[in-house]
Structures
1.
Amino acid sequence: MIRENQRIFNIALVIIDFTVITLALIIAWDIRFATNLLGFGSNVGGFYHYILPLLLILPSYILIYYFLGLYTPQRTKRTITLETFKILQANCVGLFFLVTMLFVLDFVDYSRYMLALFGILSTILSITERFVIRKVLQYLRSKRYNIKYILVIGTGPLARHFTEVIMQNEYLGYDIVGFLDENHSQADFIDGFKVLGSVENLEDVLSNHLVDRVVITLSPDKYDFLEDMVETCDKYGVRAEIIPPYYLYLPAKPHLDVIEGIPLIQVRHIPLDNSFNMFLKRCFDLILVVPAVVILSPLLIIVAILVKISSPGPVIFKQERLGLNKKSFQMYKFRSMKVQDEEKEKFQWTTKDDPRKTRFGSFIRRTSIDELPQFFNIIKGEMSLIGPRPERPHFAEKFKEEIPKYMVKHHVRPGMTGWAQVNGYRGNTSIKKRIEHDIYYVENWTPALDVEIFFKTIINIFRDENAY
């Protein structure tokens, strides 16, 4: 019944998407030509002339939505952020496909303004539609509609924690049928749910109860039963799922790799290990940084002259930092301090009223202008525009002994700014909190997150109290 409901829901979702995309095109046409639907008859600007490509748009958009996973069940996705990003991706690809087809079919008089309106409207309406649908579904599930029933095998701490999570999050739409465990009798109750028997009773329970999923929470010493349990679930067409006892060590989105048929679960999920993601991020860096160097070149020259005038010494300060895969590189800055002994400088931490700073140096540090030469580190591929801030080798060695997971940040290129910095963890702030934010960035990177950090950096650049 649940599977049938899911199939009906997916069909309904496709129909709603068809309607939303059609509506977006109609509204875009009406805004562009400032008319009403009685003006069908005209050629250029006529409704039929612009609605004809809809025959190409609808199937292509629905296919793109399908391939991006927008028709897969989202029951366990509490946030709509991921779905929003996928809709943005799908609509960008769909609009590109539409423009390409218009060119191929020689629709040369198709309004570009209307196309832009359609792209914006279809995205906004689709995101709104999905948001409303998810909220309605969550509400219905919280009222015990569209429920999936789970049988839990095991009654240990892992099983009890799983049950507690299910019961605290009614929006998920799950209900516990009961437990199977050989250490309890059928008269026992665990957290209010009945023990239906031992593991040997699995087939009887699946025959006599409505069960959609079997969740196995056994300890490794009980895995002798695993093969029989999975075969029994397959026999009755019930999905079997395992919560491994080491799940606490896995990331929120574990990645499965395969070497000659042997599955490997990656303990640390790094989206930027994906070659396409790396390419996308590199393009993002170069598209923004190369024009920025050209545009800001007069400022760079003026700052260089003022640094030289303000105190004796080199204009550019180079300092060894650890980057991607713990490889060291020379990070560039405009010199903001008096020339120091290189060996002593390696072990000194900058403070708010540091006497080593020059007067002009204090200004460029406060406004982050001293960081601009790192554009050239980015062009060289040693850094990225967005990423965890790089640290000196001495402090990296110190922190890796004091702060768990500190070295995880070196799985990606370091950045000029990052998730920690835009959340206020810059300068003399908590290293532990900074690393927590860095690890979040490493494990949850998306282009949308980079864009968010970029704009937050621009907004905060002149009001960051920790910039000194």
Note: Confidence is low (pLDDT under 50) at residues 36-44.
2.
Amino acid sequence: MAFHLLQDARPAAQSLAGALTRSLERVGRCTRCRMLTEAPLCSICANPQRDAGLICLVESPADVVAIEQSGGYRGHYFVLMGHLSPLDGIGPEQLGSQEFTVLLAAGGIREVILATNPTVEGEATAHLFSQLVRQHHIAASRIAHGVPMGGELEYVDGGTLAHALAGRQSLT
């Protein structure tokens, strides 16, 4: 992309540079959920029709966008802006654990859905934040992981299949 912009599309490169500069100046974090926004509250937190008693904890703003595109969730979010990574100096404080604790202590939340990625770091992050949730006597749940809808078992990797089998649910 950089070669194309520099070689054949310099006006487009200027336009892109200006848009990025304006974004850096205008976009910040929602004071409640930490999502990227130009206002103090993002459009999700400001929407009175959303279920404020349900919080979905995610690693990134891109995760919020993906969940919103599914159309199956009507609660609020809390965006960590990463996952635990001690080697990179990312601990609970850098992920907003203090802000999350304040949010939980304010009351009105009945469930937190932990929707971190199914990686070692994501699982460790989910575990840490589930402990914070339980300290406030709030229900905590984890998103399901496993075989995708429409997927065929012969093409699913062994780790995903093992996780799906371990997390199976009774049909009775």
Note: The mean pLDDT is 93.
3.
Amino acid sequence: MLTGDTIGAHEAARLGMVNRVVPHDNLMAECEKIAKKICLLFPVGVNMTKVSVNRALEGMRFLSVISNNLELMIHFDINSEPEQDEFNRLATSRD
């Protein structure tokens, strides 16, 4: 994080940070496929799973960490400093 290095989608999948990588043109179709699969499950089970995961994340303070990071991202997005402009240029050139 301190180096500003970014990783691509395939590397994120390899590291287990995401469960799959799909081409952009297939993204909505893949989302709909997953949503349809979830809709076939017993609603109480889906809800309890979501509650359990959220409580675990709250217990680890993960949700507040995400909130803090979003705040920092907003700060970077609304400020234009030479360092930020260079960071943004490098980040987008790696994609």
Note: The chain has five helices and no strands.
4.
Amino acid sequence: MAAYSHLYKRKGHGLIPVLYRYIFWELLSPFGVSLLFLTFVFVMTRIPDITNMVVNYNMGISAVFFLVIYTLPRFLEFTLPMSVMIAVLLTFMRMSGANEIIALKGGGMTIYRLLPPVMLFCVLMTLITLWVTVWAVPWGKYAFSVQGAQMARANINVALKERQFNTPFDNVMIYISAIDIKTAQLKDVFIEDGRDPDSVNITVAAKGYLVSRPAEGLYTLTLEHGMINQVSLDRSAAHQIQFDTYNINFDVGLPGKDRVDGAKDLDEMGIKALKAVSRDRDASPRKRNQARMELHEKLAIPFACLALGLLALPLGLQSLSSRHAPGFGLALVFFMGYYMLLALGWSAGESGSYPPIVAMWLPNAVMGGMAVYLIKRVAGERFLRFSSPFTLWKRER
């Protein structure tokens, strides 16, 4: 109360602007801390891949740094709504715990008078998130694809993985048991080469080396101590050849080459491009539907800041009485419910069961409706009450 008492020194209408500024600035601190923490947690999920590139494949720190920057918009798309909800929740939980809300109500102020600063904060965050989803996310994904393709062309080892079926070249599958990072030696190599439509070559070798020939636009894979099984599809014949040394040349047409030339996937497109695809009669119905889903997702997710932020207001006021369920647990339930509805909506919309506009906007409608309902309940002093399982068990006995 001591930190809040200066608000009561002003009389009449002068109190309201001061109160609104006070609440707005109080929201910024937990929002900033939550945004930094949550974004850091998301970035940490990419640390193993980043460490692998830097330590094992000698990738430059600057290149990896830009890859992280390109992924940040995708993280912010989710951490911004989460941080808005946490900020509103913690702010009003603190004000309730410090009896500031009780003091305001004692002065004749209703809960509805607390809405303007919260609305302003949520609308500003909605606009920022809208900018992220509409412009920053497509830019980041496209830039990441281009950078990744360039890095793969410069160092093919980034594209080749141990104990995985690698497809770095068109119509070629490569399996490698182990890669010696120091010598760049490939051990126990298995190759299925289907570049010739009339035959398939299965090559097995004890070891090999991949050499870049940038002047010729080729990669040469030198294999040692192996065997080639060639199957002619047109003549239904098979041949087996053993070798001590064998060279296979590959074009540098790695996946992602079309991205460098300007082609984009749906999740890398902006609003105008998605609208064009959704109206393109030459495109398949599935692709047009996916374009509509991407379009509505980019527009709907930012409004989660508004829906979840307003929902957090009555949940934060739940702590006015210790007899009521804590608002933080309820907020977690509603937040998980929002993204479950979003995931279900995406699945249903992608399959064509629901129109994309319904599938993507339904979570906002549900959470927004819950926010209006809970605000009315809290304004009428009708808090949510939940009995713990232990209490119910005692009553049954």
Note: The chain has two domains: 5-153+280-396, 160-253.
